[in-house]
Amino acid sequence: MKSSLILAASTLALVASGLSAQAGCADPRNPAAASLHKLPAYLFPAPAAAAGATSRNAAANIIGTWHATYTVEDQPFGEAFIQWHSDFTEWENINLPVQSGNLCMGSWKAVDGKHVFRSHIGWLYTKGKVSGYFTETETDKVAKNGTTYTGTNEQKVYDLSGNLKADVTGTSSATKLTP
Q1: 140-174 burial, b for 16+ CB within 10 Å, e for fewer?
Q2: How would you label 19-42 residue by residue, b for 16+ Cβ within 10 Å and e otherwise?
Q3: Is residue 151 within 8 Å of residue 171, measured between CB atoms?
Q4: Cα separation of 97 and 87, whole Å?
Q5: How many helices (H) and strands (E) does the chain have?
Q6: Which of 9, 15, 97, 117 has its CA 20 to 30 A from that of 148?
Q7: What is the DSSP letter of 124?
Q8: Closest Cα to residue 80, out of 131, 22, 120?
Q9: What angle do CA 34, 13, 121 make, to 5 degrees?
Q10: Which of 90, 88, 98, 83 is nearest to 23 (CA)?
Q11: pTM of the complete model
Q12: Which pLDDT tens digits describe the chain residue by residue (179 residues)?
């Protein structure tokens, strides 16, 4: 309930301030912008030992391509394909409107043997002009066999002066796609 009030207050503040920005990669203020689709089952073979998952180390097992889903307050928010690279970079293609930006790039690091942490930053646009920026951070627990992960994420929206306009937390879950 408290997070609903915070999200509502943040959204009201954005509307009142005239900041009607569109976020590249993800705009947590507009969860209805993403349309979730049921993808064909053949894209996601039954979880088995993931290709290359020979370690019980999250940093080794995270490398590869994943199908991720996101929720905010237990409501579906978005669906993405993410590639985690061995050079500690990653990119994401999320099912949000292309006009706002639906590709993100970021970096990641191992937290411990079970967890990884990633971070994104991106620009916000209003009528084609930069009007702010957002940050997204996420900590994920990678399954021992390297086939799934779950985690929590936080997205913060700022105006160009660095004033926080929205702060939204949610969850993530993903399944590794095998070649």
Answers
A1: bebbeebbbbebebebbbbbeeeeebbbbbbbbeb
A2: bebbbbbbbbbebebbeeeeeeee
A3: yes
A4: 29
A5: 2, 9
A6: 97
A7: E
A8: 120
A9: 50
A10: 98
A11: 0.71
A12: 444 433 433 332 333 344 444 445 555 555 554 555 555 554 544 444 444 444 679 999 999 999 999 999 989 888 999 999 999 999 999 887 666 667 788 999 999 999 999 998 888 777 778 888 888 999 999 999 999 999 999 999 999 999 999 999 999 999 999 87
Token pair, residue 19, equals: 């900041």
Write out the two tokens for 170: 């949610």
Cβ contact 102:25 at 8 Å: yes
Quick one: DSSP state of residue 179? -
For Cα atoms 14, 17, 21, give the angle at the middle one, nearest 5 degrees.
50
**What CA–CA distance (Å, rounded) separates 151 from 157?**
20
- Which residue type, as a one-letter code, is found at position 174? A
Dist CA 37 CA 95 (whole Å) = 9
- Tokens encoding 96: 């949000």
Please name the residues in contact with 107: beta carbons below 8 A apart, sequence gap of 6 or more: 88, 89, 90, 118, 119
